[in-house]
Each structure stands twice: as C-alpha cells, then as structure tokens.
Amino acid sequence: MKYARLGVNIDHVATLRQQRGEYYPEVMRAAEVSLATGAHQITIHLREDRRHIQDHDVPTVHDMCRKMGRPLNLEMGASDEMVKIAIKQKPEWVCLVPEKREERTTEGGLDVIDQKNYERVKKACEDIKALSPDTKISLFVEADEVTLKRCLSIKADAVEIHTGDYAKDFLNKKDVTSHLVRYREGATIMKREGWGYHAGHGLTFESLVPLLEEKQFEEYNIGHWIIAESVFIGLGHVIKEMLTLINKYPLEG
Hints:
It contains eleven helices and eight strands. The chain is α/β, with parallel strands linked by helices. It has a single domain, classed as Aldolase class I (TIM Barrel, Alpha-Beta Barrel), CATH 3.20.20.70. Strand 3, helix 4 and strand 4 form a beta-alpha-beta unit. Helix 2 runs parallel beside helix 3, helix 4 packs parallel to helix 5 (about 115-130) and helix 10 crosses helix 11. This is Pyridoxine 5'-phosphate synthase.
C-alpha cells in the first residue's frame, strides 16, 4: 500500500531562534526529532533575507538527514547565489519558490508565464542539473493549466502546488470545491508526463483531510501549523498524529 509522504518544514524553529539571536532552539534538533518520529523528509527555506534559516543550518540539517537516511528538500529562490549554494550542498531535492522581501511568507507560486521569469527559472534548473545531477527539482506553482503546461518545458521533476488560497478558504469555511477541481485537473496534466505532484502552504490537520480524500498529491510539505501546534503538545506528538491521519488514506495505483 502506498501513502503520501510528509515533509516537515522546520523554518519556524529558526524564526524563534532568530528572535533572540541565541543558539536555541536548535534547528538540527528539530530535524532529528521530526525524522525519528517518522517524517519522510525535512524542508527548509533559505531566504535571500535570511529571516529564519541561516547558511550554517543547511549543511548541519543535511548531515542529520543523511544520518537518518532521509532527503533534504531545500526551498530557495531562483537566484545565482542560491543556485551556487544548492550546487555546493547537493540536497536530494530543491524546490524553487518566488520571493519578495516585504512578504510575511511565500505568497503564490512562481510566475513562469512571464518570459523573463521563465528564463530565470529554466536556467536555474539547468545549472543545478548540470553540476548536481542527482538533485531533483520541484517548482512551486499555482494549479493553473497554462502554468503547469509551461512547467513541462523546464528541466525539473515535480511541481509543488501552492495551497495557500485553498487553506485560507477552508479556514474561513468557504466552499473549496473549485480548488479541489483545479488540483484534480492539475494532477492529470502532470502525472501523465511522469512528474511528481506535491502540495504545500498553509495546511493544517483539518484542511489536509479533503486533499487526502482526493488522493492526488504524493507529498505534502507542512511547517507553520506543525511548529505552532508543537508548542502545546510537542513536535514528535504532532508529527505522529499527522502521519496517522495520512496513513488512513492510501494512494491509488
């Protein structure tokens, strides 16, 4: 039986650390606890402004992932600086995301329709693949037909669908049917070409359920809710609960 994978994003452990400029809470320890509890991978986002994850976190977290036999998913902008870091570190996965300095968190998916942005993303993927051929790449995008078909012309392995708008509508008790339909249609486009189909952003224990029922996504990357909930019941316990939920919904095929 095949089940969806859970990637635990530990950025906001670093957010708490950076608030005081201390060495604690340790990001590497969060990775260790998450993986020991059963998380399938660790996700960290090294932002241009270094607001949470720092450069030194990348190799230390990656070392922990290697020790535990699990992949590191490095989220990053498609800049020359970040491409060089990815090539040097050679994570198992890179997820290219858009970045704006003024945003609170990543807002929306990559714009691959704009030709300039498309060329920048395309070049970043080609450079990473050329010098770190074992690194797989996902593109963080909206579940839009034109966008997804455009992604297929880029040298990558998967898309991660931005679920932020869905998550907000779910939280506000709005009808999410249109989101689910678009995710279903997106899965058809990407899977028939052999691409991975992942999801992430804004998801909680409750909003994850309709997506699991759809059985379209093979991987979920969840961070803010997990870290927030762990304040009350502990990181390991939250991850166990989420994995138990995921394992109630085997994927088809």
